[in-house]
Predict the 3D structure of the following.
Amino acid sequence: MTNVQLIAALPKAELHVHVEGTLEPALKFDLAARNGVRLPYDSPQAVRDAYSFTDLTSFLVQYYDGMNVLLTEPDFYDLAMAYFTRAASDHVRWVELFFDPQAHTSRGVPFDIVIRGLRRAQLDAEATLGVRSALIMCFLRDFTPEFAMATLLESLPYRQWILGVGLDSDESDNPPAKFAAVFARARQEGYFLTMHCDVDQADSIEHIRQALHEIGVQRLDHGTNIVESPDLVAEVGRRRIGLTCCPVSNTWVSESSKSHLIKQLLDAGVKVTINSDDPAYFNGYLNANLELVDAEQHLTRAELTQLVRNAFEVSWAPTSLRDEWL
Ligand code: ADE
Ligand code: ZN
């Protein structure tokens, strides 16, 4: 069996994928037509051709712009169901799905509409595709902590549908500590905690330290910059903090996939995992991300299997489900 075949065959978990980042150009077109939203492109291919990101900020502009077609509960259902269907074809069995409620409520789309659509897709995906999942609600770090807190409070009636909270969007000048009170309250409410510490951001090491020491996150999204600090590598390894790395995404917003850092961290015993981030924009679902790391780092079967296993180990899946896979 080749490594590509092994990647396809292994049951997998995905811990870092933004549902809004799974909006494929073709679905964007369908939703625009359904909702009477005008797109400045005449075909799905023209949408894709227009994607050109050189860094996180330029990606985020197109990412938020794309969301304007998402308006109704069936839109969110169709979005999530399309992702689950694609994930099933990659043999993904467990997904922790990020969503960005503020990107919708700030446009006038109610929280309730967003979460009901996602929830209905989760139930159908489990029943019809065998893909189980949980939601992680991300706060947008370029908005205020007050807006994040209001969103946290708005989520409480749906507490049972949300497993954890995260922090994403534009990292520059938006450190984790800005959201300390919000995350402290989220912890009190029993949410798991994670935060983006994107590759190659200014003050990355300081942001990672804040996330680990002031916020007390249980995982770091991306987080590969810890390699700059041997102390952090040792701490993250010892505390079995999961890093949710996204190599294909890195090739768009940075100068490389950072697979050499992923390999270095894997060798150091850190719980690195491979994920797709925004696969409709970066053109690579989970298996493609694993294949990229394998192609660049010439992984052994044991190393590949360890990367896949790490995701189940650091997942927040119920223990009974984790026991099935580990
Ligand atoms: N939102 C969606 N994808 C993101 C990423 N990779 N980093 C920060 N915010 C995001
Ligand atoms: Zn992300």
User: Anything to note?
Assistant: Residues 18, 21, 56, 63, 168-169, 196, 198, 249, 277-278 surround adenine (ligand 1) (CB under 6 Å).
